[in-house]
Amino acid sequence: MTGILVLIPIALGLGLLGLGAFFWSLRSGQFEDLDGAALRILIDDEGPVDD
Fold first, then answer.
1. Alpha-carbon distance 30 to 45, whole Å?
2. Looking at residue 48, what DSSP letter applies?
3. Could you tell me what percentage of the chain is helix, strand and coil, using 3-state DSSP and rounding each to the nearest 5?
4. How far is it, in rounded angstroms, from Cα 50 to Cα 42?
5. Does residue 13 contact residue 21 with C-beta atoms inside 8 Å?
């Protein structure tokens, strides 16, 4: 019983911490350009290699 009394507040605290991190990432613009990173891998920035 005492284990549950310790684990429930820890679980709630971790859940609130994760929710706070998610809202912080939304507010700081982490999810603004979802397609840019996926398309950036297809761009060839390097020129041809001279041997």
1. 24
2. P
3. 65, 0, 35
4. 22
5. no
- Sequential pLDDT tens for the chain (51 residues): 889 999 999 999 999 999 999 999 999 988 888 788 778 878 877 766 666
- The count of C-alpha atoms lying within 13 angstroms of the C-alpha of 32, restricted to the half-sphere facing its C-beta, is 5
- DSSP-derived letter for residue 44 is -
* pTM to 2 decimal places: 0.62
Q: Which residue has the tokens 């996926």?
A: 38
Torsion sign over Cα 14, 15, 18, 20? negative
Alpha carbon 2 to its chain's center: 34
